[in-house]
Sequence to fold (370 residues):
Amino acid sequence: MKSINQTLVNALMALSIVGAASCSSAGDPVASDQESPVGVVTALPAVSPSGAISFSGRVESEQTAYISTRVMGAIEKIHVREGDKVLAGQLLVSISNQDLMARRVQAEAAVAEAEAAWNVAQKDQQRFKTLFEQQSVSPKELENVTLQARSAQSRYESATQMLRELEVSLGYTRLKAPFSGVITRKMVDEGSMANPGMPLLILEQGGKLRVSATIPESEIAHVQRGDRVQMTVKSSGKVFPGTILLISPSSQGTGGQYLVKLSIPDSVQKALLSGMYVQASLPRDTGQAVASQSASPLIPLSSIVYRDQLTGVYVVSDDQKAILRWVRLGKTVGDQVEVLSGLSAEERFVVRAEGKLSNGAAVQETNSKY
Fold:
């Protein structure tokens, strides 16, 4: 029996050796067929300017008018459409004015009546002056007639002012362009009820554009009129310089934000449209960006990886593997974003990959510049 058991053990050992040999021979081709490394473009993070102030704004016309009325009435006719070019004094909106027209007729009649009464009072006053010189009337009678003439004059002037007020109100039923420009927005339709102060149209002066932005109270002390800033159009990525033209002296009604106006170079004007969003960056105190060791690194927004509520970036390890590193982001500066934690200024990150990246995938750096 012992010999039979020994024979079985020897047979099992032989089978194990054969199986191991076959596995080893089959494993070699698999190792050689592994996926090739993904080509990636890497770079070191940029360094954010020391104390750089970043703020957002919008492109707008230098002169914008919100066309509204001071009277209430139904809108009879809107004579323009969005995008129409208009001239100064051109009729834009007609509002129903039948009630004002009726009141004007009454006011004109009141003016005519008051004028006639004043003329009669003036003649009476002149006649009594003559009689007084002839000592035919007493001083008291002359005084009474003089007071009646003054009262008649006051009634005439009051009626005249009421007529002028109605004329002004009638003018607000025929709204005209205060300057030449372009209708950029129509906010009501014909038949709607116009209310005092309610914008009906927006008219913008064509040609000259500027940027309107807000700066928080904590940064306004570092901003001065004439400072040079760099602005980036968010939609197109176009970068251009600008100058601060105006700083509002008050943040009343703006939640602690100070309004600033920035110029746009003439060479860029035609490439922009009113309403575009702009990101501006201004170095604090000095006119140049000064790097510091405490400054946070900057990386392109396009290199950020999003996973649900997390944000990360791929870095390259020493053994040429892509490692997904979770990072905490700060403010956006143009087309770059500040990394507050998770990435140091000495670590290379993946700017662009030539294939699909995954955590731990082998990579090969093809270009260190971008």
Notes: Residues 37 and 363 are 4 Å apart (CA to CA). The chain has four domains: 38-49+293-367, 53-61+208-282, 64-96+173-203, 98-171.
